[in-house]
Amino acid sequence: MSLTDIMNITLMQGFAGLSLFSVLLLMGLGLAIIFGQMGVINMAHGEFMTIGAYTIYMFSSLTETFLPGFASMYFPFAIVAAFCIAFVFGWFIEWALIRHLYKRPLDTLLATWGLSLAMQQTFRSTFGAREVSPTLPDWLLGSWAPAEGLDIPINGLFVLALTALVTGGVLLALYRSRWGLRVRATVANRPMANATGINTSRTDRLTFAIGCGIAGVAGAAFTTIGSTGPTSGSLYIVDAFLVVTFGGAGSLLGTVASAFGIAQTQSIAEFFMTGSMAKVLTLMMIVTILMLRPQGLFASKIRR
Amino acid sequence: MADKKDPIQTPLTDEQRRKVLMGMAAMPAMMMPGMALAQAAQFPTAKVNTTKLAVTDTEVVVGQLHSATGTMAISETGSIQAEQLAIDQINAMGGVLGRKIRVIKEDGASDWPTFAEKSKKLLVQDKVACVFGCWTSASRKAVLPIFEKENGMLYYPTFYEGLEQSKNVIYTGQEATQQILYGLDWAAKEKKAKTFFLVGSDYIWPRTSMKIARKHIESVAKLGKVAGEEYYPLGHTNFNSLINKIKLAKPDCIFAAVVGGSNVAFYKQLKAAGITADKQFLLTISVTEDEVLGIGGENIAGFYSSMKYFQSLDNANNKAFVEAFKKAYGPKSVIGDVTQAGYLGPWIWKATVEKAGSFDVDKIAAASGGIELKTAPEGYVKVHENHHLWSKARIGQAQLDGQFKVVAESPELIEPNPFPKGYQ
Lengths: 304, 424
Known about the structure:
Largest sheet of chain B: 7 strands, mixed
Order of helices and strands of chain B: HHHEHEHEHEEHEHEHEHEHHEHHHEEEEE
Shape of chain B: elongated
Oligomer: heterodimer
Largest interface: A-B, 53 and 45 residues
Radius of gyration of chain A: 20 Å
CATH topology of the largest domain in chain B: Rossmann fold
Strand content of chain A: under 5%
CATH class of the largest domain in chain B: Alpha Beta
Strand order of the largest sheet of chain B: 7-6-8-9-10-14-15
CATH architecture of the largest domain in chain B: 3-Layer(aba) Sandwich
Number of domains of chain B: 2
Shape of chain A: globular
Radius of gyration of chain B: 25 Å
């Protein structure tokens, strides 16, 4: 083993951690808004991601059939469409289901879990029980090899860039826009926000829909690294809750920090021990820290 | 023209007329269902069914128990379709002992207690003659005590880890040694593999399979050494650290048994990390045509899979099977190893019932050993006394279009050995 080999592996391992960080952050972001800000335990978060994944699949099939020349460019448009479709669906679900349950947060768990089962079966009936594989554009496949023996996954770079974009967008919106102000006011004190003329039920609906839309974007991006099937969303839901809870519900920066911590711990542990043991170690670390700090890494200053 | 008399206008004697009429009356009986009736009369229900199964003079009821919903529907759909196809074909030929097969479908819903409950319902309430079903080992383990207690008959299609044998189960897939040993020997001989990196999902099938693989590599066949052995939780979607470990170990062969959604992530990330078939040899025991649908041909092209059946097999049985399957389920449908094994179940059951001359489970269990099937899509198969199948092992190379090109085949049928000595 030469020195360059070790250098290369170290670099690639560093990127592996970074790439896992971006995956965890992207999957946790939508939930951080819905669960963190609104307190809705959205068990159907994974299924909103699946909506995004199937959107990519539909776009890829449609371009293949009708616009073969467009095959290398459909992906960004499909991601925007994934946001829109998941957003509209989230809007509808908030109106039909969630808004009746704000005063019973624990019941949202049950309701959204039922919703997730119904959505899974809908995917199965619509797209078939088998997994599908959207044809990804060539520029998203393979690796970028700046040096011999050093391969940086292009899909990893793509997810990283997209995560940075979405996180930046959400942070900007939450702290620099009227909507963000209304959300924060509603979270802080709902009756008072109402009294100052904020339409809190409209804010709730928009917030929930945006969270769902971001889940759709995450699901769309994950078609580059994972599977697209009726139950693909369930692969992510546990990790998503882990990231948000560990970071401290209600704090977006906490979500970022927690995604980074979990990703690095897991990625490094996986390299030095077996995969299952690495998972055990990561979870034990999270449990220990949550026992010492039940509010999560970053506690939000909310008057309860 | 005048010579050719219209036969109807030809005057007939009464005798002749009666014969013609009788002949016409007999016509339907000469066709399939009629033959079936004649056959059914040959095997009176009281004689072929002494244990109060749901068998009448015209009908025999069987059960089908798979997950049509839930996580496992991804995998089990193919088996459901293939078993139904075989049953339809058998019915079109006149059924079994002159009786049409009626299927009661139950959904195990990817939930093992549900499998147990539904199997009890099929055996106790519906009194089915046999059940085609289960896919995961977990579901089979859940229903096994019930089949043994209620004395039912299960035809189980999946390749599995072995270490099991029951009077009440016929295993139409491969047990672990039938799938693994030939593949490893081939890798060592043809691909000159000396170091192997074993990767699997973390549950019983990959763990048992890799244990057998390691024994074979290190002590039984002495092929070389194991450069690494790794298991990841089911549903794990991030393999970058593993891939770096593989890069560090530089094995001649990656031997993989990753399943489910993890499988897709594994191959997509391998490709993204620059591990492709032109640089690395990989042999898997968990990817069939069904899985490639989700993985995508471009992500796995060039890698090898060790199975007993590939859709591209070139023989007359298989051509007819593929054609019938596509006609029934659409031109885009694909057939994987387990789907074919599912298709064998009803045919083996039919042959066994006909040999035993009875639907009784005890008699079928006793008659199963030695049953031959010359029409199997995978080629000739035979049921062993241990209720597993003698079958060939084959190596296929994944192609861009999602099909496999068969590159090697064991010369003989491989004897099933669910309790292999020296591999425990």
